[in-house]
Every structure is written in structure tokens, then in C-alpha cells.
Amino acid sequence: MSNLLLCQGNFCTFLCPHGDDLCLNSLKDLFNRATNLSQDIYNLSSKMFKEFDKRYAQGKGYITMALNSCHTSSLPTPEDKEQAQQTHHEVLMSLILGLLRSWNDPLYHLVTEVRGMKGVPDAILSRAIEIEEENKRLLEGMEMIFGQVIPGAKETEPYPVWSGLPSLQTKDEEARHSAFYNLLHCLRRDSSKIDTYLKLLNCRIIYNNNC
Amino acid sequence: MKENAASRVLFILLLFLYASLLNGQSPPEKPKLIKCRSPGKETFTCWWEPGADGGLPTNYTLTYHKEGETLIHECPDYKTGGPNSCYFSKKYTSIWKMYVITVSAINQMGISSSDPLYVDVTYIVEPEPPMNLTLELKHPEDRKPYLWIKWSPPTLTDVKSGWFSIQYEIRLKPEKATDWETHFAPKLTQLKIFNLYPGQKYLVQIRCKPDHGYWSEWSPESSIQIPNDFPVKDTSMWIFVGVLSAVICLIMVWAVALKGYSMVTCILPPVPGPKIKGFDIHLLEKGKSEELLRALESQDFLPTSDCEDLLMEFIEVDDSEDQHLMPHPSKEHMEQGVKPMHLDPDTDSGRGSCDSPSLLSEKCDEPQAYPSKFHIPEGPEKLENPETNLTCLQAPQSTNGEGKIPYFLANGPKSSTWPFPQPPSLYSPRYSYHNIADVCELALGMAGTTATLLDQTDQHAFTPSKTIETGGEGKAAKQRESEAYNSEPDQDMAWPLLQDKTPLFSAKPLEYVEIHKVSQDGVLALFPKQNEKVDAPETSKEYSKVSRMTDSNILVLIPDLQAQNLTLLEEPAKKAPPALP
Fold this sequence. Notes:
The complex is a heterodimer. Chain A is built from seven helices and two strands. Chain A is mainly alpha-helical. Among the domains of chain B are: 32-120, Immunoglobulin-like, CATH 2.60.40; 131-231, Immunoglobulins (Immunoglobulin-like, Sandwich), CATH 2.60.40. Chain B is 18% helix and 21% strand. Chain B starts with a helix and ends in a 12-residue tail after the last strand. By secondary structure, chain B is an alpha+beta fold. At the A-B interface, helix 1, helix 3 and helix 7 of A face loops of B.
């Protein structure tokens, strides 16, 4: 099997420099699993958002408050195909890692607070629990991929910190529901970002832009 | 004054309104944004529904602003998407950003604006149907024929770079049928369909869905005619298989009919019943035990050479102080030629055989069946656990300076090492048995007990299921659960007690009343038994030869080398037979 050459403009690097099948297969497998996980996380968060919207947010206009409310908006993520294709894979991977890490804490609190909500449908709670679990697994997998694709690179970039816990715990029910709506809306968006970036990287690295 | 002015304005306004109403003109009704869709996550289009135009020419304008921006833009393209639409090209499209879109209708009379629509392009993706649907009938040799369906991804979707991921769904049906047969194709752009009906015209459609988004519309129908001679399956092979299996069935039926029974016995041989040479079950049924035993007597049905290995080879009786016990080879005794008798006619006949595994175990298990059991349990419950009475000691190889001298230890209460509770005058256990350990192990093993002869745990005699060990001696006794052991120690002495350090000298009379084993040569191996009813040593004789068996199930023993008095020993079950001089 030939070496895996990763080119970005005029700058090329060799992945799996020794050209062994094991390295390539393991990378392929890692990406495969990662994209499956990210797709699943997106599906869950999308369903969770829709369920919450149907139950708690009808006619409330929470969406207006949700604009610009995501704690990860400070990350410089590409916002269309051209931008994404011009982003170096190393940057893209760091962004994915930053997103995953910044969601660890909010997901944990989401589960705790959703549990405490009166009459919360099981569809929401069970999905929240599953997303939290899968987020951790995806983070682990991403770190492995990162280590293989860019060996030796430091990947301890700071990530955005979430500070929305007080609004999740407020006594005012409307305000609390609005805060949940924001969180779920941002979760759906960020999981879509992670999923798309991963699939881009997968086709770029493993299949050489020929998916 | 002011009131006049106000009322005047009002009047004019009403007049104006009246005039316009008369003309049928009014400000336009609020338009309504229907939906926005993106075919490939790179562009999108929004459509609205105009309201009533109020009788006047009305213009519609679409304005929007993006999340995080304050600047308001107008729609860049009203044409491409058709009437009442706005098309956002790549330049104007951002993903993962909320668009707040409003449509306004303006006419001479006024302006009406729609409710804002919040749109994120990520979630409004709906692709076109797949393209280039081709159908082809293939019939390769040696394989099943199939319909090969191929297609390509819809326009405007960039699948190669991974920006867009698609799944496909195909459905087909014969033209006249009502239900569609649906197939799912996750990634590839081709599908093979088997099992089609010949002579039918099939209709095929396909649609697709992005990983986040809506299903596309169904593609236009493609049709294909399956020719009449199209082979559905590879039937020739099945015909052959069917004929072959029919032939085989016929053969089997014929064979069974002819030789049914012998075949059955060949396949399922009958289980052989227990049989002993010379033993007639019918005699048993009739209850004629004497004849039965005579029949047994005439047979040499007892042990084979194995037994010699198993059993202790000798029995010694210490008659007086002069005598000393020494191990004899068992052959001398074995060659007495006495026919052993089995003393339990009312149980099944298999017990006498040394080869039968039941022999030793039963002797071990059911001591009560023998005249002189080694244990006199207090209550009947003890008898239910025959295994509990069996204790086998085996000296560890290393500690016994006299070599392997296995011996049996009765379960006395304080008898972990020194099982000699009864007055020593009764008898002295000075028996050395070779291979008793093997015998005992075999007995225990065959009895299915879980006795572990060589457990090395310090244990008091009474503890159930534990082994007794005397540290220095290394005796191991496996005890069964039995409270009987807690009872009088002197009753527990069934086996001879042998201690490592006691000299093999004693002047105690001995009595053998329990049949342990019958060797091939007719030598009866007996266990000594303590007879608590015996006050004084009646005799000090050595009885090691069976003379005959009396009518009342009494075993007649004769001494071996000396011409001594015959002793009759009665052996009723569960009783200690007295020794009669």
C-alpha cells in the first residue's frame, strides 16, 4: 500500500510514513468510528432539541434569546465549504478537540439539571445521558486520531468555558426553560459542526478527496 | 380649536378610507414565508406566500440579517428561485448561523411585513433526487440472474470532498402491483435485485437523504420489462436435489420396512441389564435365597486380579504378647480357596463382584449391612449417611518412618490422633495393611464421596466434612456430617487404630466380623470390629478362612493356621455379632 500523502496547498506531509497497512487501517478504523459517533451524537441532539421545543417552547419565542448565546462562538470555526476546505487539517482537528472539550462540563450539568425538571419526558433525559457518554468517547477517539495524524503536536489549546449553570438553576421557570433551549440549540449546532468537519477530514485524509 | 382640527383630520382620513374602499384598494395583507431549502448545503432559497394585494400593485421585498450582525441586507436574487422567492448564492450563504428573514409587501396604501423566520441552513437541507437512474438485466453464468440498478448523486451535492453525505432508498414494484418493495443503500450508487418475476414490467424509483436534513422527492419512474424466459432461480440444481432426497427417502423407508427392528437395535442398542453369572433373578423373585446363594457359591464370580492390588494383602491378629504382627503377603491368605459369600441376599446381586465399583463403596457406605460395622450410630439417621462413617487415614509418605502404613482411624471424639478410647484390653489394632490407602481411596472415590484423604487441616473429629490431621502423625481422616460422631467414642471404633509410634506388639484378642473384601482366591478380608459387648477376650484366635455359610446367613470362619475352635459369627444387620467361642 502506498504512503498516505496529505497535501495542503504546496505543503505535504506523509501520514503513516512507514507505509504499513496496520497504520493506515487503524487510522481508517478510527475515523470510521469517530464519524459514526459524531453522527449519532448529532441525531440524538437534534431529536432532543425537537422534543424540548415541542413540549416547552411552543409560542414562547425562545429563539430570539438564543441568538449569539453559544459559549463556543468564540472559536474561529469555518462557516462554509470553501472556508472549511482551506482550513489546514491540523487546525480543523484542534477545533474539533476544542469543541468536544468545551462541551464536557455543560453536558454533565445538563444531565443533572434535566433530571431535576418536573415531568421531563424520558426521551429528553435518556438522550442527554447518552450524548454525555458518547461525547467522552468521541473525545478519546479524536485525541487518538490527533496523535496519529500529527504526532508530537501539542494539543492543549485552551477551550471556551461554559458559564451558564446559574441560568439553568434559576427559580423562574420561564427563564430556566429559555436557558435549556439555548443550551440544546447550541448543542445541536456544535454537534453538526463536529460531524461535518470529521467527515471532511475523513474524505480528505483517508480517501484523498474521493469519497 | 384643537378639537376642531382633530376632528377635521379624522374626517378627512375617513373620507380617504371610504374612497379607497370604494375603489377596493388597501394596504397589502401580510405575506407569509413558507419555507427555505438548501439543495447542497452551499446555497439556499426561500419562498413566501403573498397575501391579498389590496387591489394595488404590490412589491415584495425580502430583508434579512445574520446572527451576530446588525446590518440588514436585502435579498440578492429574486429571480432564480421563481416567483415569490429569494435565492442566496454561495457568496451569501453561511452555515451554522441563524438568518432572520422578513418579507414585506408594499403598495401604495401601505406596507405589511411578515413574521420573521429564523433559519439555519444546516437544518433545511433537502437534496434533489438522484440522477441517471439506469436499469440493466444481468444473467451471468453459474450465478443467479439479477437486475442491476445504477444511479449518480443528485446535482449540487459535493460528496467527494465529504462536505455532503448521502443515503439512498430505492423502491420497485411490478406495474400492476400496489405495494412497493423498498431497499436501502447506505453509500454505494448501485444495487442488485434478485428474485424478479419473469414476464412483468417493473417500475423503479429512487430518492436520497443527507445525513442532516430531509428526504428528497422520488425520482421519475424508470421501467424495465423482464423477459418471459428470464430464469428466476437456478432451478436445475434444486430439481436434482429434490429427486435425490426423494430417492434416499424411498430407500430408507424400504430398509426400515424390511429390517425395521434390527435397524433400530443397531442404532439404539438396548441397555444391558445387570447380570451375574449363575445368578437367576427369578430365584430372587421367588424368594429362595438359599438356592440363590448356592448358585452364587458355585460361581467364581468374584474378584479379578485387580482386587489383589486394591485390597490389603493381609490381616493380622495379635493373639498374645508373644506374637507380633508382621505384614504377611496376602497371597497366603488369598489362597485359602474359600469361597466368599456375600451376605446380603436381599439386595441386588451385583455387590459381590470386586470388579464392580459398588463393592468397596457399598461396604464403605453401608456398614450397617454387615455384621460388624465399624460404627454404631446412635440413631437411624446415621445410616442414611453411610459415607460418613468411612474414614480413611493415610500416613503421609514422609513422616512415617515405618514406611507407608495406612491404617484406618475411627472417629472418636478425641480421636484425631489417638483413636483408642476403648479399653485396650479388647483388642489392639495392630494391623498393617498394605495399600489400604489405595483401597480406601478407591472405596471413597467410588462411593462418590468427596472425601479427601489427604487434607491437611487440623480438625477435631466431629467437625463435619473436615479432615483430621495429627500434626506429627500426618493422619488424615475425612469425616462426614454426622452427629453420631459426637457420641460415645467407644462406639466409634470400627476400624483398627494404628499409631505410628506404638509398637506392633500387643496381646489383645481380635475379632473379625466385617467383610471388607473377598479376593479372587476366595480369601475373605475382614475388618476387625470392636465389640463392646464382649467383656473379656473370649478367644484369641485368628480367623481368616471362611468355611461355609449356614442357613441363617451365618458366615462360618475357621482359623487359618491353627486348629482352633470354629467360631460362628452371626451377622444380622445393624448389630454387633457376639463372638462365640
